[in-house]
Amino acid sequence: MDKILKSKLFLCLLFCVPIAVFSQQVTGTVTDGATNMPLAGANVIIKGTSTGTISDFDGKFSINVSSFPATLVFSSLGFTTMEEQLTQARVVNVTLQESATALDEIVISGLASSIKRSNAANSVSS
User: Fold this and answer.
1) 41 in a domain, yes or no?
2) Domain residues for 74?
3) Beta strand pairing status for 91-96 and 60-65?
4) CATH number for 76
5) What are the phi and psi torsion angles at 29 (to 5°)?
């Protein structure tokens, strides 16, 4: 009887250990510091890795962290980058502040590799 109990305990521990090794999910919300509104499209990256995600329309994100401690890096266009230290899986709510250097204009230019003679004189300006 003692041998059966030990084997059941061993099997239970054998299946429980891999569960603790798998990555854990960290969730949270990214908001705009000026308006307190959710910030859609904010980048959330685990520092030192290529693992990342973006916040949805409601500013919510979910990312799997494989090992702790870890640092999450939050960034978005027009906002200052923020880092959050994690020692365990938890809910992380972050407020990003507007960057002091606002974007004035964006210039997009294109270069064609081959131009037909009939289209060479056409141009668009604004």
Assistant:
1) yes
2) 23-97
3) unpaired
4) 2.60.40.1120
5) -135, 140
